[in-house]
Amino acid sequence: MMYWQKDIETMSREELNKLQLERLKQTIELAGHSPFYSKVLKDNGITADSIQSLDDLQKIPFTTKDDLRNNYPFGMAAIPIKDCVRVHSSSGTTGNPTVVLHSAKDLDQWANQVARCMYMVGLRDTDVFQNTSGYGMFTGGLGFQYGAERLGALTVPAAAGNSKRQIKFITDFGTTCLHIIPSYATRLAEVMYEVGLDPRKDTKLHTVCIGAEPHSEEQRKRIEQLLGVKAYNCFGMSEMNGPGVAFECTEQNGLHIWEDYTIVEIVDPQTLQPVPEGEVGELVLTTINREAMPLLRYRTRDLTCIIPGECPCGRTHKRLARFKGRSDDMIILKGVNLFPIQIEKILMQFKELGSNYLITLETVNNSDEMLIEVELSDLFTDDYSVLQRLAKDITRQLKDELLLTPRLKLVAKGSLPVQDGKAVRVKDLRKFC
Fold first, then answer.
1. Which residue numbers in the chain have pLDDT < 50?
2. Are 84 and 113 contacting, i.e. CB atoms less than 8 angstroms apart?
3. Which has fewest Cβ within 10 Å: 24, 136, 182, 197?
4. Do 76 and 293 touch, CB atoms closer than 8 A?
């Protein structure tokens, strides 16, 4: 069996659109019970009956992260709090956190959604699944935990960090699949080799699910080579439940976004108008299968596009291209717009380099400059002339990609800070007047 739910995953576009419209009308009816949306819908004259086609979705105003923060904690709830069974939230380091509520039905559907993703990449109830994500208020831990349990796999809730403990579990329990942040995947592989373990020969790993931070295709290939696995890209965000919103199939050519759960739009981040299929824009999502806290036209700030055409895997749900970055992660330097992922793409092409790098933006003599520090591979030479040629080659390719020339500094392996969680890739020390 290739499919977890064949009737849903291979549904015709006509049937899928019909299902989406039906669920959208139900969602609008439900959202009207929340303090926030009751006012939004009333002010714009929107009712479930006024939505006659999916195009009518554009009548509804966008929802933003600020809306969630301004209605903290429960102003977005569409059902009584006594009927909610779980709450997740962001860290809230810059003010009120964003809060997401779940009913028992929501959690059940979320587990099914994640199980569908895992089944799609070949995982089965015979697998041993190890989750290296944090648990608690972060959705990555519990989201994959319940999905793996729904799949029937033996689950190892290892949580984040403690690499040697992770490795012990991998070897002792016969772990076959990891859920892991890309930057930590390369770090964990390095620790394995440091302790004399070759994961390609000495473990049963065959699959990793990666996500939670931007990464390039080159980074994915490096993870696959280091660990001897297939690495599948996962997209999720707490506002949309968490992991499992979209996931690659075994074709590794775009992430199928489950349209029986979510309506997807791609808009120009400046004009907020829809862009043609295949054109990069901001991802906007509407939940259509959640009852505790539905979200209408939520601006994710993620930049991607819908990949035209059909997927060879037979699934009819739209595919999202690898994310280019976030509209609010954009770096503007000397009039040039760029994203950290563009830099990583270049760095990961050089086998002489390690996986850890740091981009520092600073003001030097009243001019904004970019410094890129990147660690060398421990297998590489310390010959100064060779290092000079390497630095020159890397700088040239960075200039071609970024349309500006950064300062490049090659440093010894282990020189840059290492995080067990999301990697800190950019430090902005510029002086803004």
1. 92-94, 433
2. no
3. 136
4. yes
